[in-house]
């Protein structure tokens, strides 16, 4: 029983921690009290579940335990009078929503709070990834190539601003939603990306984060039916459809060209295609819809060789106009290499690197190395792979780059370019 209860506490921490925290933030009115209550709740679970059994609804149990532990602490600290307004709120039953469009999901409410326009863009992202995505401060710092103390300061200042300015924990009204949407979509996609290609840990994929981002995107779409909300959900569904084929049994990366397309989740692909079609019908597009269309083009191809690379390059042209960035330029260059051959691809990739912003991006050097390999420039390819490896921290990606280097070890440096 003890072993079962311990496993249940660990599972609840993995799966319910973010939801419990979001609800406690709403109930207790602030991050500091909620985080302390969350710690108390899991400490109580670790002590009581082995003795009393695992509750039927761990989420409700943890919320209740955290809430009443906070009440007890406030009473013991002799701050009952000061805390009375809060105690009234958290001990009274919550009223039922009066309007059907009121959102009851505490995590979505928390996202809109973390993405409030009063906070700086960097602070919004850091705070959301910490409080909603559950990433550690160190993980966020690594993801953004920033020092850990810098991220910690952003989070602390953001929480203080929310507290001091009385920013409400609520989903904004419908009139405010469009202005708040861009920031929320961006953060949801960042949470998904951390699940799609984890910046830390032994595995490439964190399925829990990806699933959470998709759930939040579905919830958001139910609130605001905007083309970009559809585009983002479609994009994530298409990536998620390939999750099982992106790594092998050992956790090593399987390239798109080598993936078993019969194992792609066709139900998710069909749902995504419907979202893309409906979004394009509005004739309004931001950065997510073209990306979803690119991913959809890959899903249409029976195999890698049948991919419509001309369409993909054209969609990257659109994306470059909507939201130009060094990474978009790099991906467009790689698509040109697939369409027109390695010589054209190498020229495009080197042009993208020369434009700046990619020097510290390991995938840029890896993409350049691949074009050099295909051209038979083995010495240059090795140097580029080593450069990529020096910048890469993700274990699965490092193993992949090491394999690429090992495969080049047997190549003759005088090998002639492909004809």
Automatic annotation (TrEMBL):
Residues 111-162 form the RNA polymerase sigma factor 70 region 4 type domain. Residues 13-79 form the RNA polymerase sigma-70 region domain. InterPro entries: DUF6596, RNA_pol_sigma70_r2, RNA_pol_sigma70_r4_t2, RNA_pol_sigma_r2, RNA_pol_sigma_r3/r4-like, TPR-like_helical_dom_sf, WH-like_DNA-bd_sf. This is RNA polymerase sigma factor. One of its GO terms (biological process) is DNA-templated transcription initiation. It comes from Nitratireductor mangrovi. It holds the Pfam family DUF6596. It comes from the Bacteria. GO terms for molecular function: DNA binding; sigma factor activity. Residues 180-279 form the DUF6596 domain.
